[in-house]
Structure formats: C-alpha cells, structure tokens
Amino acid sequence: MIKVKNIGYKYPKAKTSIFEGHNFELEAGEILAILGPNGSGKTTLIKSLLGLLPIFEGEIKINGVRSYVPQHTLSPFDYSVTEMVVMGASGQNGLFAEPTKADFKKTDEALEQVGMLDWRDESFSHLSGGQRQMILIARALVSSPDIMILDEPTSALDYRNQDKVLQTMKYVADQGKAVIFSTHCPLQALHVSQKTLLVKNNTPSIFGLSKDVLSQENLSKLYQLPIARGRLEQSEIIVPLYS
After folding, report:
1. What pLDDT, on the 0 to 100 scale, is given for residue 29?
2. Contact status, residue 104 vs residue 185, Cβ threshold 8 Å
3. Which helix (H) or strand (E) holds 60?
4. Contact present, 40 and 90 (Cβ < 8 Å)
5. Mean per-residue pLDDT for 166-180?
6. pTM (predicted TM-score)
7. Comma-separated ranges of CATH 3.40.50.300 domains in the chain
8. Where would you tag: which of 54, 96, 105, 222 has the fewest CB atoms within 10 A of its CB?
C-alpha cells in the first residue's frame, strides 16, 4: 500500500537537507510509528507523504485515499463539533455537497468512537486542545480513508484519551486500513505498531519490526539519553533514565 524509497527533503535554496535516505514499506492493516528528536523532520516527512511538500530525491508510492490529522488546528469560523466532523465526508460527496443522513450517522459513530459524542453540539473553538485533537480524529474517521496519517496525535492528551487514540488507531487498522503516526513515546509505538521508523538528523534512519527497532541501544542513541526497556507484571515498559 505504501512504499518509500530513499526519499529526502530540503528547503528551497538550502544547502543541507532536513532528511534523506528514508526507506520503509507499509501494508493494509498495519500501523507504522515514526519517532525522532525535536527537529528531526517528522512533520516534514509526514507532509511529504501527503504530497504537501515535494521531495528532492527518492520515490513515494501510495495506493489509496489519505486522511491527515495535524498536531494543531483552529478554525476561523464558529463551527459546531458536528459540523467539523461531518466535513470529513466532503472528500466523497464533493466540497459543496450537502451532508446526507448517512453522513451524520457516521459522524455520531465517529464521535462515539473517540468518546466525544456528548460534545457534538458544542463550538469547536471552545474546546481544549486535547478535545479538538479528538474531534479531528473523528473527522478523519468519517472520511473513510485507506491510509490515516496522524502527526503526534497524543501530544496534548491525558493518559485516558491517549489510550482512546491508540485504540482508535487499532480499530482503523483492524478495518484493513494503514495507519502512520508520529510520537515521542516509544511505549506507544511498541504497544500499537507493527513497524517503526527512527529518524534523526544526519544519521541513517532505522526501519523494521517495532519489537526489534525499539531496543534500548537504538532508543538511547536516538535521544542521547539512557533508555531502559523491561517488563512490569505482564506488560513491556520503556522508560528514560533521567540524569
């Protein structure tokens, strides 16, 4: 479904690249986690996958309709939560088409999936950053994508809502869709993703099965900080060892 071969990106007229030499593959029903330090080009990579930024080298092959959940979104208009989410259907119906009863049914189902159905009549602009993030994920669900791409979807969320997002990504993948998300939490990647891509400036990226890529050695080198991976009762844990 997705095949990325040796891609690179740099700003126009820049002498150095933001990233280069990224390679990975993702099939339907799989989840890919992208991890890297601040400024390593995770968001730039995601925008390249979406076609929003042109790569200067390499090749991207994507088969399917993509939906995008950005880190932050504010609307200049006072849309309700329902209005924001039902916009996800415009990709199928046409930009100026009126939403159908089926679209509103899908909207309620998506809001219920992310635990935000009780807020459907609220103003989107009055919600917290974390709540807005959940609404954008619901909108992506309504668009019925083949590939869902999320940029740090849990960054503004408490633990309970982080778990909702992770469960939603699992749900999407179980429907035979591909999911790509960036995160600063290796434990989330280990918990939900089959594959992981580690990215760092001026360093070859590392791609493979999450259980192999998310090793203590790889993560410690990635973040320049000791990282421990072990077991607590029946679960695996990954924790930084702060100095």
Report:
1. 95
2. no
3. strand 57-62
4. no
5. 92
6. 0.87
7. 1-64+146-243
8. 96
Answer whether CATH 2.160.20.10 is correct for domain 1-64+146-243: no
CB 23 within 8 A of CB 6: yes
> Any long-range contacts for 15-21 (C-beta under 8 Å, 24+ apart)?
17/56, 18/44, 18/201, 19/44, 19/45, 19/199, 19/201, 19/205, 20/57, 21/58, 21/204, 21/205
Diameter of the chain measured on Cα atoms: 57
User: Looking at this protein, which amino acid is placed at residue 221?
Assistant: K
Q: Read off the amino acid at residue 43.
A: T
Output the six-digit token pair for 148. Answer: 């869902």
Q: Is 186 left (phi over 0), alpha (psi -120 to 50) or beta?
A: alpha
pLDDT band at 93 (very low <50, low <70, confident <90, very high): low
